[in-house]
Amino acid sequence: MYCIALSAAALLAILVPATLAQTYTACNPLNTTGCPNMDALGANATFHFNETWNPSIWEKHNQGTVRLDSGAAVFTVKRRKDSPEIRSSFYLLFGRLEVVMRAAPGQGIISSAILQSECLDEIDWEFKGGNTTHILTNYFGKGNQTDLTRGRDFAVTTAPQDDFHNYTIDWTKERIQWWYDGNMMRELNYADAWEGKNYPQTPMNIRIGVWAGGDTENNREGTVEWAGGPTDFGQAPWSMLVKTVYAKDYTVAKEYSWENMDASGSFEKVKIIE
Ligand SMILES: *[C@@H]1O[C@H](CO)[C@@H](O)[C@H](O)[C@H]1NC(C)=O
Ligand SMILES: *[C@@H]1O[C@H](CO)[C@@H](O)[C@H](O)[C@H]1NC(C)=O
Ligand SMILES: *[C@@H]1O[C@H](CO)[C@@H](O)[C@H](O)[C@H]1NC(C)=O
Ligand SMILES: *[C@@H]1O[C@H](CO)[C@@H](O)[C@H](O)[C@H]1NC(C)=O
Ligand SMILES: *[C@@H]1O[C@H](CO)[C@@H](O)[C@H](O)[C@H]1NC(C)=O
Ligand SMILES: *[C@@H]1O[C@H](CO)[C@@H](O)[C@H](O)[C@H]1NC(C)=O
């Protein structure tokens, strides 16, 4: 990895096209050859967003601002189509993600901290701005959305929009655990995800951001309903705050390659470059 020193202000000047969904892949290795190798974290790292961040490690995507303020990275939805997101340039092949964050308020505003691969394996923490009592977990295997039992919501005693909490994902090839402030809320075993075929198992990077699922002009009715109802942009802005991110790669590697990948999407077909 290389380092460029760019101020937060310079970072804001980088214009990127808006996409609403946070689920996106530029090159899907399951049906495309020659998808680029990925940098592996290969170790562990802590990022405190009270200081500066390195935009070559955390790439800013989509319309909307991310700024450093009051000891945190502040992701703001101010107008329609704002969906500011940062993605790690490094990937994990099984690993651990800890995010200390405060969700954005606002009906229809979705805050998320997820792991996602280029073939659309995904493990999620999500927060609905209009819901102060529940936090959401979800996962996807290769973008398969047919099974509606993947998501699971959990009741919490303090609103995720009021305070910072520690949301952790611990991901091995046997199971995925979701931890909230040191309590394990959920465990998913490999076999429980359609005998492993829908089990996330390809190198994933970290994607953290906020978007308006309740934007009625840009989303389908079902999305608006899922998000908790229409967003009233007259009430904007809404911000999600992220203090700390800790990541640990459970594989010791320099890069991951898709060279040997086939349609199975199996972790056994991921080439590990040491
Ligand atoms: C590859 O699969 C993805 C997901 O199913 C699809 O969106 C994309 O269009 C496909 N690309 C090609 C080149 O077939
Ligand atoms: C993180 O990596 C450092 C070395 O870079 C090591 O000393 C430390 O034990 C690691 N921590 C964890 C939790 O793996
Ligand atoms: C940022 O937070 C970390 C952890 O709380 C702390 O060690 C560090 O000194 C802080 N840096 C600044 C510039 O406040
Ligand atoms: C919050 O989410 C839970 C679980 O999905 C749901 O039962 C509850 O009705 C929601 N509350 C609001 C205000 O939407
Ligand atoms: C998606 O997963 C379900 C099981 O949850 C399975 O029945 C279905 O065939 C899968 N679809 C694809 C395209 O693999
Ligand atoms: C988050 O919680 C886990 C326990 O689930 C703990 O091990 C870890 O140190 C916490 N991380 C941060 C950054 O506070």
Can you offer a commentary on this structure?
- It is a single chain.
- With 274 residues, the chain is mostly beta strands.
- Helices cover 5% and strands 41% of the residues.
- It is built from 2 helices and 19 strands.
- It has helices at residues 8-13, 221-227, and strands at 38-40, 44-48, 58-61, 65-69, 72-77, 85-88, 90-91, 95-102, 109-117, 122-128, 134-140, 152-155, 165-171, 175-180, 183-189, 204-212, 238-249, 255-257, 271-273.
- Strands 2, 4, 5, 8, 13, 14, 15 and 17 form an 8-stranded antiparallel β-sheet that branches.
- Strand 14 (175-180) and strand 15 form a beta hairpin.
- The longest helix has 7 residues, at 221-227.
- The structure holds 2-acetamido-2-deoxy-beta-D-glucopyranose (6 copies).
In short:
With 274 residues, this protein is mainly beta. The protein has helices spanning 8-13, 221-227, and strands at residues 38-40, 44-48, 58-61, 65-69, 72-77, 85-88, 90-91, 95-102, 109-117, 122-128, 134-140, 152-155, 165-171, 175-180, 183-189, 204-212, 238-249, 255-257, 271-273.
